[in-house]
From TrEMBL:
<comment type="similarity">
    <text>Belongs to the Prp family.</text>
</comment>
<keyword id="KW-0378">Hydrolase</keyword>
<dbReference type="Pfam" id="PF04327">
    <property type="entry name" value="Peptidase_Prp"/>
</dbReference>
<dbReference type="GO" id="GO:0006508">
    <property type="term" value="P:proteolysis"/>
</dbReference>
<keyword id="KW-0645">Protease</keyword>
<keyword id="KW-0788">Thiol protease</keyword>
<protein>
    <recommendedName>
        <fullName>Ribosomal processing cysteine protease Prp</fullName>
    </recommendedName>
</protein>
<keyword id="KW-0690">Ribosome biogenesis</keyword>
<dbReference type="InterPro" id="IPR036764">
    <property type="entry name" value="Peptidase_Prp_sf"/>
</dbReference>
<dbReference type="GO" id="GO:0008233">
    <property type="term" value="F:peptidase activity"/>
</dbReference>
<dbReference type="InterPro" id="IPR007422">
    <property type="entry name" value="Peptidase_Prp"/>
</dbReference>
């Protein structure tokens, strides 16, 4: 299970774990979550609006309080909630305000 925790007050999101929907290389849930989260992390870093830490099965994105970053993170949240709705056994999205 991939566990995603958004903390909007402290301006970070943590993504941990593996979806285990299918075997490595065929796991569509893992692929979708990875692409979305790493894409947002790279934009935030490249625009100098935050940073991220990444290792196997873990990604933490921290962002600065500005309109672009806030919108990207909200879009990420909404996209991940959509995946969670379709794959509740493989992805859990939480918000800690």
């Amino acid at each position: 299970m991939i566990d995603v925790k958004f903390n909007f007050k402290k301006k970070f999101v943590e993504i941990k774990g593996h979806a285990e929907f299918d075997e490595f290389g065929k796991d569509i849930v893992c692929s979708a979550v990875s692409v979305l989260t790493q894409f947002v992390a790279e934009i935030i870093k490249n625009e100098k609006n935050g940073n991220y830490k990444k290792k196997d099965g873990y990604l933490k994105i921290s962002w600065k309080d500005n309109e672009m970053s806030d919108k990207l993170i909200m879009y990420l949240h909404d996209a991940l909630k959509g995946i969670e709705k379709s794959y509740p056994d493989n992805l859990k999205v939480e918000v800690n305000k």
